[in-house]
Amino acid sequence: MLITREVDYAVRILRALADNKIISVREMCSREDISVSIAYKITRKLEKAGVIQSYRGTNGGYALKKSLDDITLYDVIEIVDKELLITECLQDEYNCSRNTKSDICKLHQEFYRVQEILTGELQSKSLSAVFSMS
What domain of life does the native source organism fall in (predicted)? Predict the structure, then answer.
């Protein structure tokens, strides 16, 4: 399990936009120490998900479209990476010979329990609450 650098950068981009002003990608990158090329890739994903909005022109850039009160770390992970699993055996399509309907794997059950706790924690606080802790 790994929270990717792309997720980390997406959270940083959202932090840069926290003051609800239009900010250029270059300014975002300067504030949050992110490369411009990866910032554009991430902003496209965030915009497609309806989290941020782009503005064209000389004073263009990006701004929040959705409140940080309504976005969690889990939401960002889903937008950028689709899912975060602690082990591949928790994937829906994964076929494990040790975990069948007639013989349920105890380890799989434990991984599932831990995954539920992790997911709950990632969903428990909004980004605005996380950013106010810093």
Answer: Bacteria
